[in-house]
From TrEMBL:
This is ribonucleoside-diphosphate reductase. Belongs to the ribonucleoside diphosphate reductase class-2 family. InterPro entries: CHP03905, TSCPD_dom. NCBIfam families: TIGR03905_4_Cys.
């Protein structure tokens, strides 16, 4: 099965990087966050696993963390938007 992958450097969040892999149909296979609230981010990774990229973006895009203009879920959406446009095995 062909996959797409991204290591996305986050901006404005406690996590520093998000590593995401999806299949050729844009179904998320795995998500790992580096830094941030470990338990919560592991939970997010498990919840989005097996979901279509567009469904995840629709649900969590624009979520804010406190007074910040973004959040780890919002940054995941930025990574997913880029990943969605990548060619398979890019």
């Amino acid at each position: 099965m062909a996959t797409k992958h991204i290591c996305y450097e986050t901006h404005g969040t406690c996590s520093r990087m998000i590593d995401v892999t999806c299949d050729e149909n844009n179904i998320i296979q795995q998500v790992f966050f580096l830094g941030g609230c470990n338990g919560n981010l592991q939970g997010i990774g498990q919840l989005v696993k097996g979901q279509h990229i567009d469904d995840v973006i629709h649900k969590i895009n624009g979520i804010r963390c406190g007074t910040k203009n973004t959040s780890c879920p919002d940054q995941l959406c930025r990574a997913l938007e880029i990943l969605k446009e990548k060619a398979v095995d890019d």
